[in-house]
Specification:
With 921 residues, the chain is α+β, with helices and mostly antiparallel strands. It contains 29 helices and 26 strands. It has four domains: 211 residues, Metalloenzyme, LuxS/M16 peptidase-like (Cytochrome Bc1 Complex, Chain A, domain 1, 2-Layer Sandwich); 213 residues, Cytochrome Bc1 Complex, Chain A, domain 1, CATH 3.30.830; 208 residues, Metalloenzyme, LuxS/M16 peptidase-like (Cytochrome Bc1 Complex, Chain A, domain 1); 208 residues, Metalloenzyme, LuxS/M16 peptidase-like (Cytochrome Bc1 Complex, Chain A, domain 1). The strands form four sheets. Strands 7, 8, 9, 10, 11, 12, 13 and 14 form an eight-stranded mixed sheet that branches. Strands 1-2-6-3-5-4 form a six-stranded mixed sheet, with helices on both faces. Helix 16 crosses helix 17, helix 16 packs across helix 20 and helix 25 runs antiparallel to helix 27. The longest helix is centred in the middle third of the chain and has 27 residues. The protein is globular and about 75 Å long. The termini are far apart.
Length: 921
Amino acid sequence: MFKSPNDPKEYRYLTLGNQLRVLLVHDHTAPRAAAALSVGIGHFDDPLDRQGMAHFLEHMLFLGTEKFPNPGEFQSFVNQYGGSNNAWTGTENTTYFFDIAPPAFAAGLERFGQFFIAPLFNADAVDKERQAVDSEYKLKLKDDVRRLYQVHKETINPEHPFAKFSVGDITTLEDRPDNPVRDELIAFYQQHYSANQMGLVLQGPQSLEELTTYAEQFFGAIPNSGKDKPAINVPLVTDRENACFIAIEPIKEVRKLTLSFSLPPMDAHYRSKPLSYLAHLLGNEGTGSLMSVLKSEGLINTLAAGGGISGSNFREFTIGLNLTPNGLKRVDHIVTTIFQYIRLITQQGLAEWRYLEKKAVLEQAFRYQEKSRPLDTVSYLVMNLLHYAPEDIVYGDYMMSQYDEALLKEVLSYFRPDNLRLTLVAKGQKHDRVADWYHTPYSVTPFTEAQLSAWAEPGDNPALLLPEQNPYLCQRLDPHPLTDEQEAIPQLIQDLPGFRLWFMQEHEFRVPKGLVYVAIDSPHAVSSVRNIVKTRLCVEMLMESCNEVAYPAEVAGMAYNLYAHQGGVTLQLSGFSEKQPLLLKLLLEKFSGRTFNIDRFNSIKAQMLRNWRNAAEDKPISQLFNQLTGLLQPNNPPYPAMIKELETVAVEELPGFVEAMFAELHIDTFVYGDWRKDDALALAEVLKDAFRVTDQLYGEAQRPLVHLGECGTLRYEVDCGHADSAILIYYQSREQSPKEIATYTLANHLMSTTFFHELRTEQQLGYMVGTANLPLNRYPGLLLYIQSPVAGPLQLLEAIDEFTNAFALVLLELNESQWQASKQGLIAQLSEPDTNLRARAQRYWVSIGHKDDHFDQRQKIAREMAALSRAELVRFLVEDIKPRTANRLVMYYQGGAHLNLTPLEVGEPIASVSHFQRHAQ
C-alpha cells in the first residue's frame, strides 16, 4: 500500500471470511483508537412507500443490541472513556464511527460490532426514535440547504432514486394496518446490511496482529447474504430535465447562480483526476480568470467550480456564483462569459505543464500531510476503502498519475448548453410550483433557442486569460536543520513597547511548514459597536483586495486569514513556510496602499448586511447562542446591534477610522514551525515598519465580560421567528482558576450523555438537545440547551430543572471505578499530545492570548481534575447548578407552534441590555 514518506503509520488490508473488507492502521503514537464502518446502503435503497427508512435504521442501531440491551449504553461507555460517536446516512452509504481511549478499544468494538450482528429494534425505542427523526426533519424546515436540495430532487429524472425524500418523518415511518414499521425495518436491515456490502477501518496504537484479532472477533460474525447490490440503470437526467432554467425562492437573502453539467460516473478516473484539472482552471481566481472578469464587471462576489452531487451512475459538475444585484439582471451574460472561458480552455488550456503543476501541489500535500485525528482518519479512509483499489486507499485522493488529453477533451464535450441545468436562487422571482416536504416555491423553464445558440457559439473574450505559471510553488521541501537551542516552549525574543515577538522552531513534526500569527490590538477598534462594525468592514475590504493577487499562493499550499476579535484584528499565515515572507510582503503592500473604493465598499457592506440579516433566519438555538455571547461580551455584539450601525456607516468614515485605530496599538506576533530565529526577527522588522511601531500609545484593548454575580435566575427572551421553541441555560464561574475550569469541564462531561439520553431519547423533547462547556474570556461556563417542536420554553425549563435537581443523585450512584474511569477519560483527552503542527500552534497561540507564559494550563487543569473528589463535584452541583440556589441566565424563545402555552416567567427579566451590561457585577 503506497503511503506518504512522512507517514509513520503501518497499514494492512484484508478481507474476512464473511467478505467484509477491512483496513487496519497501526499508529504507535495514537492518543485515541477509532473505528468507522460504512455500509453501501443509503436513502437510494429506501422503499418508495417508506422513504427515510435508511436514515431511521441508522438511528435505531444505537438503541440497544441483544448483548448490550440498554439503549444509551454504547454512548455512555464511549463518553466514559473520553470518546465520541456519530453516524450519517448518505445517498448510497451509511457510515458509523467512534473514538475512545485505547485501553477501552476492544470493549468499545465489541459493543459497536453488535450493531451489525444483533440489534434489538425494541418496539418502545422504535416509537420514540421515529419522533426524533420527525424532529430532525422539522428542525430543518426553514433550512435553505434542505429546501433547495428538495427542489433538486424534484427536477431530475423522477425515476432515479435521487428523487426520494431522504430524511423521513412521522408519516413515512408510521405504523399502518397489518404493517408495523418495525417489521419493515427489520426486513430492510436483514436484506441490506450484509458484510459483503461493508467496509471497516480500525486505527489505534495496538499492533496490526492485535487489530486483526479485533476485526475477526468483533465483526467476523456479521452475516453475508452473498448478494451484490443491483446497479442503478436509469440516468439522473434525461433530455426532459436538461437545458432548463430553475428559479427557487429562498428564505434567506441570497443570490446564487449554479450551472450544473451532467456527466457519466467518474470514479474510475480517480488516478488521473480530469475534473480536478478542469476545476482548477474554471475556479481560478487570479488575473484574467472568470472570477476576476465577472467581479470587475460588478456581477459576482464569489465563484467556485467542481462541486456537484455524484453517485455510482452519475456525476454533476457545477460552477456556483454568488451574484451582486446587478449580476441578477445579467444572468445570460454571465453564462455566456462562462462558455467563453470553457471555449478558451478547450482551445488553449490543455497542456501537460498545467497538469504537472497541479500534480506537484498534490504530491507536496501528500508528502507533507500532517496527522489528523484518528476519528477523521478512519472516517475518510473507510470511504476510500469502498471506492479505490486496495493499494490506493491512502494515496488515492492525491494521485494524478498521467496527463490524458483525450479524456479531458471527452469531459469538456459535456460542457454544452443542451447538457446544462441553470439554477437561480434569489428572492422575488416568478414561481408556479411548490416542492414537497419543505414547501419551497420554484419554477422550471426550458432554455430559449436564442439562449442555446448564443451559448453554443459564445465567441472570444479578450479579457479572459488562462493562469500563468505559479511563482509560489515551493522548491525547498526539506525542513531547515534544527538549531542547538531546541526550546521546549515558545520563547519571547522581543519585548518592546507595543510589540512582542514569540518564536519557536518546531522540532517534532519536521515538515517544511510554518504558522505566523499577528494580533493587532487597538482600543479604538472596539470602543463602540459602530467601531467594531467598521473594523469588520475594513477586514472584509482588505481580504477582498488581496484575493486576486494572493490566489496563486493559496493554490501552492499556503493560506492566509484576517479576522476581527474582541481586541482588534488578527492576521494568520499557514502552510509551506519558504514563500510565507513573500506572501506577507504582498498582504502588507495591499494594506499600506489601501484604498476605499466606493463600489467595492457598497458591495461588501451589502454582503455583510445580507449575511447578518440572514442570521435572523438561523435555527433558534443558534440565534440564542449569538444573543448570549453578545449579552455577556460587549466587544462581541449580537447581529441586530451590528446591523443597526452598519446600515448608516459611510465610506468617508473609514480612512480616518483606520488612522485612529493604528495610532494606538499593541502587536503580539508568534512565529512557529519551519522557521529560523533570524528569519523571524527579520519578519518582525517588516511588521514594525508596516505598522509604524515607533511613536504610538501602547496598550492592549480590554476584553470586558459581564459577570452574573449573585443574580439568581435571569431571563432574556429573543424573537427567533420559527415554529420550534428553544431554551439555553448558562452558568458562569466567578473565577478563572484551574480548579474551577476542571470542575466545570468535568460537570459537563458527566452530564452530557445522561442529559441527551433522558431529554432526547426518553422524553423526545427535540432533536437538538445537549450540554456544552462554554468558557468566555477565560471564565468557565456551562450550557444546557434544547430546541423543541413539541414543547414550549416553560416545559423545557421544568424538564431541565428536574434533570439538574436529580443529577447529584446520579453521581452518587456511580461506583468508584466508574467515577475514576470518567475522570481518567477526560484527563486523557486534556493530556492528549497535539496531532499536528497546526493544532500545536493554535494551542500555543491561545496560551499567549491567555497570558499563560509557561504554556502549562492543560497540565494544571489535569492535576486539579485528578484531585477533584466526588463530594466536591456533588457540592458544586447542589450549590451552583441546582435551580433553587443557582445564579444563571435563561435565554429562550416561545415558538410559533407554542403560542397557546403558558409563557415562561421564572426569575427576573432583563428589560434593558445596556442597563444589564452596566450594572451586572
